[in-house]
Amino acid sequence: MKMAKPELTSNRIGLLPFLVVILIVAHVIAFVSLLVLQISNRQDIPENEEALERKIGGGVKQEIGSDMLLRSVIITNSLWVRSQRHILSFLVRRLCVSAHVFTSVSSRKGLGIDEGCNDFLPWLENKAGVEISSLLSIGKSANGRALYAAEDIQTGDCLLKVPFSVQLAPDNLPPGITCLLGDKVGDVAKVALLILHEKRLGHKSEWAPYISCLPVLEDMHGSVFWSDEELEMIQHSALYEETLKQKQQIEKDFLALKLVFDQFPDRFQNVTVEDFTYAYGLVTSRAWGSSRGVSMIPFADFFNHDGTSESYVLSDEGKQHSEVIADREFAPGDEVLIRYGRFSNATLILDFGFSVSCNRYDHVQIKLNVPQHDVLCTQKLQLLGRHRTRSIKDDNEFTYSENSFIIREVRPGSKWGKGIPQSLRAFARILTCNSQQELDNLRNEATQNDGRLARKPFKNKNREIAAHQLLLSEVSHLITEYEKHIKLLVPTPPFLCERSAPRRRLALDLLTGELRVLKSASAWLENYCSMLRTH
Ligand SMILES: C[S@@+](CC[C@H](N)C(=O)[O-])C[C@H]1O[C@@H](n2cnc3c(N)ncnc32)[C@H](O)[C@@H]1O
């Protein structure tokens, strides 16, 4: 695709010698400017441009056989095109950083200038000793810092490459601290500790330019930062319990780190659980799982999230870097977004402190219990205990207990109620059994098949309707609760202060999204029951 770009396919032979001279001069200036930069920063950059190019050339060979996305990079990027752009844009940025080339692009798109971050990328590239990105610049958006196209970007372009060596992971902690950490301290807590450590070092920290770009506490809205009053807004959602669990985990980690705080009072004096929660929130909102456990990836963590994007952070263990490939074209000044994951609003609010309206990954947790007053309660629990086969871990989301189920939005026209799990419908069939004979039939059917209980519809239509009516009444009850609660939040309730406004919006997004899921399930269940009645 890039080969079709006019400036690269130009046939105007008369201009060719002129272009070649410019190119040679540009290469020489690039080389000299790199040398000057190295000397002025008194830092050891291990590779010069030539070695850098060799590395990229060698890297292409290694990419073959890697996953599809990496292979498509090779198809769309000829090495020549890559290396030309690489050196030229590197040069342009080095020479023009203070001239705000990107600022003019940003202001054209109505974006704010991010004065604080002008020197961030040059600093990081210096630290890494390689170019990280020639295509992106840092700017300000309505959602905090963001990355913008600094020039035309084509689908398949490599947007950035951040070497593992400049990522912050648990093994960056000083050995004296690491040896005090027991097995109980998780990776998120370790990176949070690292951030606290570097923060205390201030400008003496080797990460100071990065640490100073991280958001302040007032701008963080993850639900672990919400007050009790604010949390009340989401008490009907599974996010409520999940937030309490996360808060407990943070407190546990904080206590487990007490030994470190006591041993190094000069580095961690007066660290409070609030300070630790803040650092913990920074990690959950901007770190990726990695072969080093959990890694903060400077510069890549300025990407904002778009659930529909097909770009995400890839980890190349062979080349020891993280990279992101463009999933579409971008014009200069466009914000470039990636997908953090297929996350519901509940997860986005818990870990990142934002939500998206009409989130297609929204879901609702529904809990069913065998009532104690059911005369067959013991028999049902025994049967369920013997035939538990389903997995209850939902990828990328919360883990649920055995009697909770996840409902997703049932798309209109869905014949099989995709979105309502079969395991939930099976559970409802067991709940509606009103004789030992019915339970025995379900047990026999399970034994003759794959061992899972009540997966087939009851042969008796009325029994099948009863099972689904039971579900319908559970769902209808939740709908009523959600509707009541949403009404209470519009307009702003008196128990919330002005500062809570962004969090109220998050709560509303969460509840309306979950209500939409519930209503879709209700409509499908109604339809299923009326279809059974009429056939
Ligand atoms: C990985 S950081 C992205 C860079 C961040 N904007 C900054 O200022 O450094 C994730 C944070 O960016 C913000 N964010 C990312 N995508 C967003 C979106 N689609 N809507 C609102 N906020 C978003 C949230 O505050 C989130 O916690």
UniProtKB/TrEMBL annotation:
<keyword id="KW-0949">S-adenosyl-L-methionine</keyword>
<dbReference type="InterPro" id="IPR001214">
    <property type="entry name" value="SET_dom"/>
</dbReference>
<dbReference type="InterPro" id="IPR046341">
    <property type="entry name" value="SET_dom_sf"/>
</dbReference>
<dbReference type="GO" id="GO:0016279">
    <property type="term" value="F:protein-lysine N-methyltransferase activity"/>
</dbReference>
<dbReference type="Pfam" id="PF00856">
    <property type="entry name" value="SET"/>
</dbReference>
<feature type="domain" description="SET">
    <location>
        <begin position="128"/>
        <end position="341"/>
    </location>
</feature>
<feature type="transmembrane region" description="Helical">
    <location>
        <begin position="12"/>
        <end position="37"/>
    </location>
</feature>
<dbReference type="GO" id="GO:0032259">
    <property type="term" value="P:methylation"/>
</dbReference>
<keyword id="KW-0812">Transmembrane</keyword>
<keyword id="KW-0489">Methyltransferase</keyword>
<dbReference type="InterPro" id="IPR015353">
    <property type="entry name" value="Rubisco_LSMT_subst-bd"/>
</dbReference>
<dbReference type="InterPro" id="IPR036464">
    <property type="entry name" value="Rubisco_LSMT_subst-bd_sf"/>
</dbReference>
<dbReference type="InterPro" id="IPR050600">
    <property type="entry name" value="SETD3_SETD6_MTase"/>
</dbReference>
<keyword id="KW-0808">Transferase</keyword>
<dbReference type="Pfam" id="PF09273">
    <property type="entry name" value="Rubis-subs-bind"/>
</dbReference>
<keyword id="KW-0472">Membrane</keyword>
<protein>
    <submittedName>
        <fullName>SET domain-containing protein</fullName>
    </submittedName>
</protein>
<keyword id="KW-1133">Transmembrane helix</keyword>
